[in-house]
Design brief:
Layout (H helix, E strand, L loop, with lengths): L1 H10 L5 H12 L12 E2 L5 E4 L7 H9 L4 E7 H4 L9 H12 L3 E7 L20 H14 L6 E4 L12 H18 L5 E7 L3 H9 L8 E5 L5 H17 L6 E3 L19 H14 L4 E4 L30 H12 L4 E2 L5 E3 L5 E7 L6 E7 L5 E6 L5 E3 L6 E3 L3 E6 L4 E5 L6 E4 L2
Parallel strand pairs: 2-3, 2-9, 3-4, 4-5, 5-6, 6-7, 7-8, 8-9, 11-19
Antiparallel strand pairs: 1-10, 10-12, 12-13, 13-18, 14-17, 14-19, 15-16, 15-18
Length: about 425
């Protein structure tokens, strides 16, 4: 393991202890789908977002974002990229980014974070701001928020402070969050502020942050429910919301990162043909749980189609660097087309003698004018189900985006690859076990 660790550290700029964290997540993730609470949920019209998108500022990417239904993008506003020299603020590169995104009608989550080179010595981490340097960080925050007031829609304080992105004592991060939220609010009273951006569901970290008063100034909490599979991600989600209920937090939850690599060495890597199913299941689960926004991690691989890398961080994209789309991009696009504005109704569809292994989610009255039924089987086998459907029903292929009409009465083999069925009107599908 020592030689393997050296190889990974040498070739991948990623802390080796994350391997252990990811491995533990892989082992603990369950295979059956944990269901959300039995309450109806309205999916926000702007539910769908993307991490690290719109950076190329090209017409090709702008058109692709529009096709895929992206309503939010998340981008980090690095302190070191704005105030490279003390007291000298340069927003020019971010101005170009923001102008391009705003022209597309897409909203922006701006992450404020990290230190500047003149505050740390060579070899020291920039993922920490000492108490005596917090006033300097707050000035950066003030200048940045003022400059982009009315252009950046949400400010997110820091990123994943409970793992590798904060190197100082947790108590100092709580104070940084509290003071940063206060400074943003003073600078722009109408600002929408989110914080946390927790990796997973660190119960103790969250409770101590609440006790320190660092959550009070936030409009919402963000977190990243990474796991080995969608059921594991939803298990993390449920643990997170359970912790929030224990501290009596009732505000919105933003999923500002979720995703899976399709290559590299991470134990949560998946094959390309599984990617569409993982996307649909993750999005469906988070939407039905009432997440305010879901930002997929991420838009692009940092390699071209046909290339491979041992670094899993290069394989998280929905689209390759050369704009070739992975099959998973169609799964995202279908969800973004049909779920926004719809109402998740847990008691539907009507079911008769259906195995508990067959999972179904019914979303009614979407912005597209469609109702949507999403089905899959938690077991790796085919279960034949008889469906009585409205006459206008369509079956959508999550790997290609193509659709085909379905007869009113049909039999479908339900596998672990989700089926997306849409229809219009007030009729509700009826599912029964094949006789």
């Amino acid at each position: 393991m020592k030689n393997l660790s050296f190889l990974l550290i040498k070739n991948i700029a990623f802390p080796i202890y994350i391997f252990g964290i990811l491995l533990s997540v892989f082992v603990s993730s369950c295979s059956s789908t944990p269901l959300p609470s039995a309450e109806q949920v309205v999916i926000p019209e702007d539910f769908f977002g993307m991490v690290h998108a719109a950076r190329t500022r090209t017409t090709k990417e702008n058109e692709l974002l529009d096709e895929m239904g992206v309503k939010w993008v998340l981008n980090t506003f690095y302190w070191n990229g704005i105030e490279k020299e003390k007291d000298s603020f340069d927003f020019s590169s971010y101005d170009l980014y923001v102008d391009n995104v705003r022209k597309q009608g897409i909203k922006i989550v701006g992450v404020l974070g990290y230190s500047v080179s003149y505050l740390y010595k060579e070899g020291e981490s920039n993922k920490y701001i000492s108490p005596e340097n917090i006033p300097l960080f707050l000035r950066f925050v003030e200048e940045t928020v003022r400059h982009f007031q009315g252009q950046v829609d949400v400010w997110n304080i820091w990123n994943e402070p409970n793992i590798t992105f904060w190197k100082g004592p947790a108590s100092e991060f709580y104070e940084l969050t509290r003071l940063t939220a206060q400074k943003i609010r003073e600078t722009d009273p109408n600002a929408y502020i989110i914080g946390g951006a927790f990796w997973g569901s660190p119960t103790g970290f969250i409770k101590r942050m609440h006790k320190a008063g660092a959550i009070e100034g936030l409009d919402a909490l963000a977190f990243h429910p990474y796991a080995a599979n969608p059921s594991g991600s939803m298990k993390v989600y449920d643990k997170f919301t359970k912790t929030l209920s224990e501290i009596k937090y009732t505000g919105p939850v933003w999923v500002t990162e979720i995703g899976y690599p399709t290559g590299g060495w991470y134990p949560i890597r998946i094959s390309l043909n599984k990617y569409p199913a993982y996307i649909v299941k993750s999005i469906t689960g988070a939407a039905a749980r009432g997440a305010r926004v879901l930002l997929w991690y991420e838009m692009f691989d940092s390699i071209k189609s046909g290339e491979k890398s041992i670094d899993s961080q290069k394989h998280f994209g929905l689209v390759y660097k050369d704009f070739v789309r992975k099959e998973g991009s169609w799964a995202y696009e279908l969800c973004a087309r049909f779920l926004p504005g719809s109402r998740y109704v847990p008691e539907l569809p009507h079911k008769e003698n259906i195995s508990s292994h067959v999972v179904s989610f019914c979303f009614l009255d979407g912005l597209s004018g469609n109702n949507t039924l999403i089905l899959w089987n938690d077991k790796k086998r085919i279960e034949n189900i008889e469906l009585h459907l409205p006459a206008s029903a369509l079956l959508h292929d999550i790997s290609t985006g193509l659709n085909s009409p379905l007869p009113v009465d049909t039999t479908l083999g339900i596998t672990d690859k989700p089926l997306i069925i849409t229809w219009q009107g007030t009729d509700i599908p009826h599912l029964s076990k094949k006789r």
